Amino acid sequence: MKRITVVFLLIVLVLCLPLNASAAGSPLVVDDAGLLTSSQVQELNALAERISSEYRMDVVVLTVNSLGGKSAQSFADDYYDSHDYGYDGLILVLAIQDREWYISTCGTAIDAFTDYGLEQIGDIIVPYFSSGDYYQGFSAFLKESSRYMKSYALGQPIDVPGRGFGSILLVSAFIGLVCAGVAVGIMCGNMNTKRRQYDAEEYVKNGSFSIPVRQDIFLYSNVTKTRRPENNSAGKGGSSVHTSSSGRSHGGRGGKF
After folding, report:
1. How many whole angstroms from its chain centre is CA 110?
2. pLDDT of 88-123, one tens digit each?
3. Which residues contact 126 (CB under 8 A, 6 or more apart)?
4. How far is CA 61 from its chain centroid?
5. Phi, psi (rounded to 5 degrees) for 11
6. pTM, 2 dp
């Protein structure tokens, strides 16, 4: 009876433990291109597991020699979808022969990592990859991922500067200043009884001067054309979303290095 009780308690304990991608059998750092040492892979994987467990989003790093003819976006989406990673998470794929990188987001990570945020992360990690310092590049990616996840967990996702409550306060303050300036200007104007005269009618005696014929002659016209700005979503914030081959929604961004 005691043995059955112990086994039952162990089963309950295992079921209550939070599962991450590593526990499910898929490592979070996969170095198929052989860019890292075994100790570096272990360090990065431990950091990725800690971040994934803390924020309930899997953060994955994958290096490959080639994309196999796929686009970087499709390769990253398909790899994440076909492995035992959580619904919420992101993956960074680095393809050496193609000299391409891509970050694919899924689930809540789409909102946590906006287009602006992914662009900022890319600006940080690409110089490392270009110089061949892959370990530091992946370390920077994981640390930045943790920072963005933390901001999202606090209800303040990192997005285009000026968006959010702070910008509302600035706009409100500006409108208040404008309204106050208009009101003061009107009051000052009512206090000044002198008025500038723009013609001589006030100084001409009635009937002493008349112009029998009045005619307006149109001499020329000057037309200036300005190109209408195209509708562009850049700078508007948020995340662009696409659908992978498996039918799941993903966000993402990538480029050359």
Report:
1. 9
2. 999 999 999 999 999 999 999 999 999 999 999 999
3. 101, 137, 255, 257
4. 20
5. -65, -45
6. 0.65
- The three-class DSSP label of residue 24 is coil
Q: Report the length, in residues, of the chain.
A: 257
Contact 101/257 with Cβ under 8 angstroms? yes
Do 43 and 12 meet the contact criterion of CB atoms below 8 Å apart? no
- Given phi > 0 = left and psi -120 to 50 = alpha, else beta, which region is 237? left
Look up residue 168 and give its amino acid.
I
Over the stretch 27-79, which tens digit does the pLDDT of each residue have?
999 999 999 999 999 999 999 999 999 999 999 999 999 999 999 999 999 99
Contact status, residue 120 vs residue 88, Cβ threshold 8 Å: no
> Treating both helix axes as pointing N-terminal to C-terminal, what angle do 115-130 and 134-153 enclose, rounded to 10 degrees?
160
Domains in the chain (CATH in brackets) are: 18-158+249-256 (3.10.310.50)
Backbone angles phi, psi at 101, to 5 degrees: -130, 150
CA 111 distance to own-chain centroid: 8
